[in-house]
Amino acid sequence: MSDTAPHLLLIDDDADILRLLTIRLTAAGYRVTTADSGQAALNRLDIERPVLVLSDVRLPDRDGLALFDEIRARHPALPVILLTAHGTIPDAVEATSRGAFAYLTKPFDGRMLLDKIAQALALTAPTPIEAPRGEEWRESLISRSQRMAELLAEAKLVAVTDASILIRGESGSGKEVLARAIHRASPRAKAPFIAVNCGAIPEQLLESELFGHVKGAFTGAVANHRGLFQAANGGTLFLDEIGDMPLALQVKLLRVLQERAVRPVGAAEAVAIDVRILSATHRDLDAAMADHQFREDLYYRLNVVTLALPTLTERREDIPLLANHFLATVSEKYGRRVNGFAPDALEALSTAPWPGNVRQLYNVVEQVCALSTAPLVPLALVQRALRAPGIEVLSLAEARQRFERDYLVKLLKLTGGNVADAARLADRNRTEFYRLLQKHGLTPELFRADEGPVAEGRQE
């Protein structure tokens, strides 16, 4: 087995179980290390950290949950799947509430185990917080998606030129973060980077903000004001939401870009500037040009190179990385001891729609960190932050079973517990119908009582 294969640590005091699981997991492409006791497992962890731990809950030297707590204390982000031949619902609830990724009762289906391992590794892949040597320029762009890798490769190529770049992307997708990264990768990295949101400043103030003004140019101009173009001289000026710039200012911006000089409001002479322009928009500029809301000549000046940022839902593999990175940042900021997300909480984040993209994800993480009272953020807090109702995701078999039971209950209610009538409505013979009732623990006689149905076994 290759040393690059994902490394699993398997803990069980049953030699036969160790041997069989090792064969199965190795055949599935994993590299397996085994331990037959809790202490042996901890020793193994001191030597080499695996990507996932599979542990029996009954070990000769300690309780499996106690071992799990020790592993969690040493490696908070390391996923653990617990295995037992004596599973109970309270044990499973206790294990998952303390942060275990999954709890499987022996004998378990081999495919289910492999699926759980794959899910755990997909949700808990390591976060590349430190950029590789030579890639520090992009350290704030946390990603492992192929889509982002291709985008960043293009960004690095054009960063070393002086070409104007138009960054397209939805609100909250990280356009300014990308612009700052391009500046850091450029020859202008040691000069100023200045950002301005063209849609957030009133039109009458934006001209002065960009180009500056001289004393007395208008009411309230009590002193000379150096605009952002001059402030960014030698560096990069980032014009965010350029699609919201008024047409009158678009004409003046075009002149600045053509002449490489800026004339402050009220001034008689222009001042030469050396500024690299990056711009961004979430608007469809092609449609804006067609509606005569954006100048075509300015568009071609700004759009020498286009970089399109994907939405967060187009790079879902980055969500666990970003969520854990933001949680580490926010927990340090607030002085909170929050180590990570419960597995179902992380899965809810990974499958959410994210209309607000990365900015919304950061806000959600900040909220759950502020409200969390446990080392692991629970699902309920994530759902509250997402303002989403609790959605239970069932397997197809579980969904069928639940539907079948609910259907039988409705028939028995409708017929007052008369099995012959209920079986006829279900288009089944009485013998088959009785088997279905027995399977779901339903007693027809109880539906004939005034107090309504009571089910034997699991209650809904």
TrEMBL record:
Keyword Transcription regulation attributed: yes
UniProt xrefs under InterPro entries: AAA+_ATPase, AAA_lid_NorR, CheY-like_superfamily, Homeodomain-like_sf, P-loop_NTPase, Sig_transdc_resp-reg_receiver, Sigma_54_int, Sigma_54_int_dom_ATP-bd_1
Domain of life: Bacteria
Claim: Transcription is one of the keywords in the record: yes
Residues with PTM 4-aspartylphosphate: 56
SMART domains: AAA (SM00382), REC (SM00448)
Sample GO molecular function, one term: ATP binding
Domain Response regulatory positions: 7-121
A Pfam family reported for this protein in Swiss-Prot or TrEMBL: Sigma54_activat
UniProt entry keywords in alphabetical sequence: ATP-binding, DNA-binding, Nucleotide-binding, Phosphoprotein, Transcription, Transcription regulation, Two-component regulatory system
Domain (Sigma-54 factor interaction) ranges: 141-370
One of the GO biological process terms: regulation of DNA-templated transcription
CDD domains: AAA
SUPFAM superfamilies found in the cross-reference section: CheY-like, Homeodomain-like, P-loop containing nucleoside triphosphate hydrolases
Cited PANTHER family: TRANSCRIPTIONAL REGULATORY PROTEIN (PTHR32071), TRANSCRIPTIONAL REGULATORY PROTEIN GLRR (PTHR32071:SF116)
Stated name of the protein: Response regulator
Organism: Chitiniphilus eburneus
